[in-house]
Amino acid sequence: MAVRGFDVFSSRSIRVGASVPSHTRGSFSKAALALTASAAALTLAGTAFAQETQLPGINVQGAQAKKASAPKAKPKPKPVQAVQSEPVSPVATDGGNQAAASDAPYNTPASVSVAGQGEIQTFGQTNVQDVLRAMPGVSTGNDPNNPGIAVNIRGFEGQGRVNMMIDGVRQNFRITGHTTGGFAYVDPLLLASIEVQRGAVSGVGGSGALAGSANMRTLDVDDVLKPGKYYGALTSLTWGSNGIGFSEMGAGAIRSGAISIVGAISKHDQDDYDNGRGQRVPYTDQDLISGLAKAHIQIDSAQQVSFGTVLYNNDFTANSYNQNIDSKIYTASYTYNPASNDLINFRAGFSGSDLKMRYLSGIGTASSGTGRTIEDLGLGFDVSNTSLFNLGGIAVKSNYGYEYYHDAVDALNSIDPSKGGGVNPSGKSTNRGAFSETTFSKSIFDLIVGLRYDDYNLNGNAVVDPHVPPYLPPNFPIPLPPGLELGNLHVNNSYGDFSKKFTLAAKPVEWFQPYVTWSNTFRAPSISETLVDGSHPASAFEPNFLPNPFLQPEKQRGWEFGFNSKYSGLFQSGDTFRFKGNYYTMDVDNYITASCDAMGLVCSFYNNVGTSKVEGVELEGAYDAGYFFAGLSYSHNHTTLPSQMDGLGLHSYLPGDITTITAGLRFFNERLTVGGRTYITGKSQKGDINVGPNEPLFYDGYTTYDLFSNYKVTDDIDLGLTVSNLTDVAYTPALSSLGTGNSPVETGRGRTFLLTTRAQF
Fold first, then answer.
1. Calpha distance 631→619 (Å, rounded)
2. Cβ count within 10 A of residue 349
3. In the chain, at which end, N or C, are there fewer CB atoms within 10 A of the end residue's CB?
4. Which neighbouring-strand residues pair with 635?
5. How far is it, in rounded angstroms, from Cα 473 to Cα 111?
6. Half-sphere exposure of residue 144, counting CA atoms within 13 Å on the CB side?
7. Residue 709 pairs with which residues in a beta bridge?
8. Angstrom distance (rounded) from CA 547 to CA 3
9. Is the sign of the CA dihedral 270, 216, 409, 17 positive or negative?
10. Domains in the chain: how many in total?
11. Is the predicted pLDDT of residue 131 greater than 70, yes or no?
């Protein structure tokens, strides 16, 4: 059941244009073949700590009710007890000195991927997007000028389609311009893990997430302290060629009695880099400083309170302006988990965020945006509880709760207030959601039932220029509602609906778990999509932009068929094999994109007419024999979604095929690790709306190679060497834009050497 309301006021009348049909894309001939491919290992990340197994919103289950969901010991009657699967052996690019990347994805009947700290520091020091792009079904909107992260899941990107989080805090910053529709900003040197869930999210973090979520967890006490230590430090010093220069990070932590504290600071000053042809890619420099502080207080054996802050400040050049990003994230949480009561495992979390994008000065002839500031003030909280009990012979784990988040966006110009935020609007949005996810475990079967009800409200003002041609987005109603006229608009929109997720998993043998999932989700229109207005800065002949208060929420429904496989001793005693795969299909209604009139003078966002289809295959796994490890990640994607329009967003089609292969060897009692990684990226669609006369319909595919090595000098000190783009390939990464204009050169980074000294003591 859906409930929707509008409260729209204006002062002059307007007309409605024609609808725009969806477009047909490609074929899906490779899907069946891909499901039969054999592989070993994507997740070759090194240091991944115990906290990396805690995936918000992910139900980690086996068919025999695993220990993670089994009730704690208590007086009879006792709930059905469960079997804990064996821990994964270390599969680490840093020599295997610590636990491997989380084994949780291979216990989870869902599309889940995790990258640990070792993988991030090996492959993501210069650009953490390389780590995300190595996950199946995942990519990023790439703007080489802008250091922000825009996660793409299965071809869905921007405007909140993927819920991007830092330490569980939503990153809802949106921007309208020559780039993707929103960024998250975090320093790779402060990251401990990245956790991505593709598809519907039933628990915390699922509100408004059409295609999935990505949580980037920063360093905490247990990431800095060695096991058994009460104080310690973690430091990293990196030098890189090709504009990288020096990067420094230092962290310290202490645990005393009931109190534990951690702090970290990082600095990175980077110059422009060269591509594979030796050509300078302009405006790719940045000057970053970031830090964090966290504290945990153990009140008693059942209760803990935690506080944290993550700070980020970066100067760079994008969208024709020298810009500054200043981001502050604040968190607080309380947990209550009494050992004597299986019905209570309670958590309450509170968060605040303040992100400012400042336009400091223009480059070239750009000047109208100088003085502009776009600020997003976010406030959120969530409460949840997990209960464990029995229904006869059925073990039950139920997680239920409520989440809320509010964003207040202010776009202004301190030099010329009349210019405001350009085409970036101000406004407020609120999302609320009640949710539950319950797992029923009996014999070899798990039935997971997820249900949530979410609603949103969007409030703000916009202006329809009375001098624009008589064009309006396709889904404006005809005739116009009484009182809706050309001029000033006040918009107060609301909507509410249910989202559901049902998964049936089985474990007929210990090493194999098939599952099937049906789900539906929706995403509310963003402030940027609804309230965009004004004209293109600095030109009287560029397009005018119209708001669209009649946008409907995007909706998807679909199936996923997948499996997990875990096996130890496959070829020799002590080796480990982990593998998972899935086929997904999604039907998408009301997909929001942008279009212009026939003259290209008036543009707006609109809901696509009809149903679009997205389907694909995703494979990932891990094999580790101690002295040898190898891996593969593979994605195949097909879509009939209409294209996002470059210039008012960014094309978001995944390449048809993406493969990442990693392999390595360990020597000298695993103190020395050497290996390589290959990225094979197929061609990708530009989108009909972005193709000019006589231009090709696809971006070219490309293949790049990385080498890596790590030597453990002592138990406390590691030396690492990485060579990215070994063969100096000239390419432009898929899903790329260049906010300062169309680049005359390929924007992929050329061959780059990184030398890292890392100490933990």
1. 11
2. 22
3. N
4. 618, 658
5. 36
6. 27
7. 674, 721
8. 22
9. positive
10. 1
11. yes
Which of the two residues, 329 and 99, has the higher pLDDT score? 329
Q: How far, in Å, CA of 685 to CA of 656, rounded?
A: 8
CB 502 within 8 A of CB 450: yes
Structure tokens given for 584: 């997904």
Q: Position 405: which residue type?
A: Y
CA dihedral 605, 609, 611, 615 (to 10 degrees): -40
Tell me if the bond preceding 508 is cis, omega within 30° of 0.
no
Rounded distance, CA 188 to CA 244, Å? 14
Residue 174 burial class via C-beta count within 10 angstroms: exposed 0-12, middle 13-18, buried 19 and up: buried
Question: In Å, how far from its chain's centre is CA 757?
Answer: 29
Q: Range of 9's domain?
A: 3-760
Burial of residue 18, with CB atoms counted within 10 A of its CB: 0-12 exposed, 13-18 middle, 19 or more buried: exposed
d(Cα 603, Cα 25) in Å, to the nearest integer? 24
Mean pLDDT to the nearest integer, 194-201: 96
Strands 592-596 and 628-639: unpaired
The helix or strand, by DSSP H or E, that contains position 224, with its residue range, turns out to be helix 221-224
Rounded Cα distance between 138 and 153, Å, is 5
pLDDT at res. 307: 98
Q: How many residues does the chain have?
A: 761
Look up residue 678 and give its two tokens: 């290959």
Which sign does the torsion angle of CA 701, 703, 704, 708 carry? Answer: positive
Whole-prediction pTM: 0.85
Instruction: Please give the single-letter amino acid code of residue 72.
Output: K
Residues 522/487, Cβ–Cβ less than 8 Å:
no
> What average pLDDT score do residues 163-187 get?
90
**How far apart (Å, rounded) are the C-alpha atoms in residues 412 and 717?**
49
Residue with tokens 């010329």: 416
Q: Is 406 exposed, middle or buried (0-12, 13-18, 19+ CB in 10 A)?
A: middle
CA angle (755 as vertex; 752, 759 as ends), nearest 5: 150
From first CA to last CA, the distance across the chain in angstroms is 57
Q: DSSP string spanning 82-121?
A: --PPPPPPP--TT-S-S--S-SGGGG-SSEEEEEEHHHHH
Amino acid of residue 374: I
Q: Is residue 168 predicted with pLDDT exceeding 80?
A: yes
Q: The CATH number of the domain where 575 resides is what?
A: 2.40.170.20
Q: Per residue in 567-588, pLDDT tens?
A: 999 999 999 999 999 999 999 9
User: 563: pLDDT confidence band, cut at 50, 70 and 90?
Assistant: very high
SS3 of 276-308: the string is CCCCEECCCCEEEEEEEEEEEEECCCCEEEEEE
